[in-house]
């Protein structure tokens, strides 16, 4: 059985919430390239500046990684980029993180929110702590954003409650429910978006070239969809009636 395509025809805006610069570029940005080419508005919310990710002094690293993220966004057509200053490497799940994500959801008003998975163990090993904190806070902020009595000071400022319909997380293997065909130009742009993080990648000993591994991962996703290359997701329709 092949995986179905995401119902992207219902997407007008998609908000992507991740912990660090470069988190979107490890394959997922190829789907973003497809969406922006179709006229879907995509926004990125980065919770940290990635200042702990390189041996350079933190402020220097933060400036460098911010510039590289801006370049990566330009490659895939993302114009809305917001980078917060929560501490990299020690991101803490809690009300402050939920509040900031909730604010962005209420401001951007997305139809779908793409967040990080928050399992401890993943197909590629134990996940990094910041990713888990970001993923869980994003999941909770989805509900927060639709409830006017949660963070009501934002509503008092004029930010009306907003409830996105779709919650998406990147997925591989049996956990995936849908896919996005990124064959051709979307995949090329996805690879180029990670290449935009050149200084960061150069600081990671033995890191493979993006063109050497992203197409291989996308080809595995393509097998699940019956296409050449695909990005896979686990999709939740938050407005679907409950199943009993």
Verbal overview:
This protein is of the alpha/beta class and 244 residues long. Helices cover 40% and strands 16% of the residues. It contains eight helices and nine strands. It has helices spanning 28-37, 58-76, 95-108, 129-146, 152-156, 185-195, 198-202, 210-225, and strands spanning 13-18, 41-46, 80-83, 112-114, 121-122, 125-126, 166-170, 178-181, 230-237. The protein has a seven-stranded mixed beta sheet with strand order 3-2-1-4-7-9-8, with helices on both faces. Helix 1 links the parallel strand 1 (13-18) and strand 2 (41-46). Helix 2 packs antiparallel against helix 6, helix 3 crosses helix 4 and helix 6 (185-195) runs antiparallel to helix 8. The longest helix has 19 residues, at 58-76. The radius of gyration is 17 Å and the shape is globular. 47% of the residues are buried.
Secondary structure: elements and pairs:
Blueprint: E1 13-18, H1 28-37, E2 41-46, H2 58-76, E3 80-83, H3 95-108, E4 112-114, E5 121-122, E6 125-126, H4 129-146, H5 152-156, E7 166-170, E8 178-181, H6 185-195, H7 198-202, H8 210-225, E9 230-237
Parallel strand pairs: 1-2, 1-4, 2-3, 4-7
Antiparallel strand pairs: 5-6, 7-9, 8-9
Helix pairs in contact: 1-6, 2-6, 3-4, 6-8
What is the tally of helical segments? 8
Query: Could you tell me the number of beta strands?
Result: 9
Distance separating the two termini: 24 Å
* Average of pLDDT: 95
- Please give the largest β-sheet: 7 strands, mixed
> Strand percentage, roughly?
15-25%
Structural class by sheet pairing and helices: alpha/beta
Shape: globular
N to C succession of SSEs = EHEHEHEEEHHEEHHHE
């Amino acid at each position: 059985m092949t995986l179905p395509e995401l119902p992207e025809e219902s997407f007008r805006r998609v908000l992507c919430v991740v912990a660090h610069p470069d988190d979107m570029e490890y394959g997922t940005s190829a789907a973003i390239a497809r969406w922006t080419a179709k006229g879907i508005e995509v926004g990125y919310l980065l919770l940290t500046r990635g200042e702990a990710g390189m041996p350079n002094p933190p402020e220097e690293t933060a400036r460098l990684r911010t510039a590289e993220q801006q370049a990566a966004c330009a490659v895939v057509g993302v114009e809305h980029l917001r980078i917060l200053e929560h501490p990299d490497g020690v991101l803490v799940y809690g009300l402050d993180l939920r509040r900031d994500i909730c604010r962005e959801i209420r401001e951007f008003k997305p139809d779908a929110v793409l967040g990080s998975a928050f399992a401890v163990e993943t197909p590629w090993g134990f996940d990094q702590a910041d990713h888990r904190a970001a993923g869980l806070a994003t999941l909770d902020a989805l509900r927060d954003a639709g409830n006017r009595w949660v963070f009501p000071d934002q509503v008092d400022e004029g930010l009306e409650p907003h409830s996105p319909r779709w919650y998406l997380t990147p997925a591989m293997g049996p956990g995936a429910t849908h896919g996005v065909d990124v064959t051709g130009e979307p995949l090329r742009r996805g690879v180029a978006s990670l290449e935009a993080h050149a200084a960061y990648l150069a600081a990671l000993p033995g890191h493979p070239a993006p063109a050497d591994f992203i197409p291989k991962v996308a080809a595995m996703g393509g097998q699940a969809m019956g296409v050449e290359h695909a990005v896979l997701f686990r999709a939740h329709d938050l407005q679907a009636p409950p199943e009993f």
